[in-house]
Amino acid sequence: MTKAGAYRLLRSGLVLIGLALFVAGCSAESEGPQIQRFEGQIMGTYYHVAVVGQRDEQALSELADQVHEVLADVDHKMSTWKPDSELSRFNRAPADQWFNVSQETYHVVAEAQRIADLTQGRYDVTVEPLVNLWGFGPDRHPDRVPSDTEIQQAFKKIGYTHLTLDPSGPMLRKEVSGLEVDLSSIAKGYGVDQVADWLESHGIHDYLVEVGGEIRASGERPGLSQGEGVIPWRIGIERPVSSSQSIQLVVPVSHYAVATSGDYRNYFEEDGVRYSHTIDPATGRPITHRLASVTVVTKSCMTADAWATALTVLGDQAGMALAEQENLSVYMIVKTDDGFKVEMSSAFKKQFSEALVAHQKAQP
């Protein structure tokens, strides 16, 4: 299981591969409060922050430094690249021993395990050996299809049911030797939430935060032209084609978090067969269904991040059924013989009814 390199966006430098979200209309300034922006690199990807205000250069620089510290703290706890990170030390620890972790790491792992339970293991943060085996992990090797024997050997080191949690520590424990946890399908979203919560706690309520394609927005921003006043933050959901970037649908996202997963840019081919970067923990092989892109909108970016990966693994039919069961706001783009079709959950249709009507009216 990977996510728009799901498991690889944080770790391989495949920055924004499969990205389906970008800020729509965020470049012009107007009189009065302005959109002020800063960016940086963390977790093997880029982040961008836009805040509304009139800060001088020094104040904006200090704000940028503080936001980077928030993200660096998440990275220090949950990185699998940094050998001294909390998660890396747990991954090196022997089996059948409790390992103390921070409340933050425990919180993220607990949410990952909750979604693993709901998906019956189709979302699994212990799937690293399979991701590596197919050449999409840090142990890069020439693209090739692994043997059945290699896949079965990797299965011995994975399984979310072999990872146990104890909130009293808080502590984690692995029950099989070689099991490792990789949070790159959920930690970016958690980092977005941490920045958003930090901004809120410091009196900043009009902002948009994006880390590696995962987004959370709040409040309003200045309009793009005189007389437009203030308007909600909006994002464009990208059409899933690898040759260009075009908008499929624009939706307002103030007070929400948005995450997207897709399989249309990160893959390899062998003997004319295309192998997706998204590995299904149930089979140990890349997904073969026709779901090209899935966008999830929730209050928590951490949760949206994980669900986008989970639904990508499940595919459009099983994924949409689970989205309806969990009342998730989900927008899917599915490949067909004639191009693409769109599928939306009931919650998404209700939440973005006005945007959908406007989109329909704008069609030729």
Q: Features of this protein?
A:
disordered N terminus, alpha+beta, eight-stranded antiparallel sheet, 364 residues, globular, 20 strands, T-fold
Provide a brief overview of the structure.
This protein has helices at residues 57-78, 86-92, 103-118, 128-133, 148-155, 187-201, 301-314, 316-325, 346-351, 353-362; strands spanning 21-23, 34-42, 45-53, 99-100, 163-166, 171-174, 207-211, 214-218, 220-222, 230-232, 234-238, 247-252, 256-262, 267-270, 273-276, 279-280, 285-286, 291-298, 329-336, 339-344. The chain is of the alpha+beta class and 364 residues long. The protein has a domain at 92-174: T-fold.
Task: Describe the protein.
The protein is of the alpha+beta class and 364 residues long. It has a domain at 92-174: Orthogonal Bundle (T-fold), CATH 1.10.3980.10. Helices cover 31% and strands 27% of the residues. It contains ten helices and 20 strands. It has an eight-stranded antiparallel beta sheet with strand order 2-3-7-8-13-18-19-20. Strands 1-11-12 form a three-stranded antiparallel beta sheet. A hairpin with a 4-residue loop joins strand 5 (163-166) and strand 6. Helix 6 packs antiparallel against helix 7 (301-314). Residues 2-22, 25-30 and 264-275 have low confidence and may be disordered. Flavin transferase that catalyzes the transfer of the FMN moiety of FAD and its covalent binding to the hydroxyl group of a threonine residue in a target flavoprotein. GO terms for molecular function: metal ion binding; transferase activity. Mg(2+) binds at residues 185, 305, 309. Its cofactor is Mg(2+); Mn(2+). Its main location: membrane.
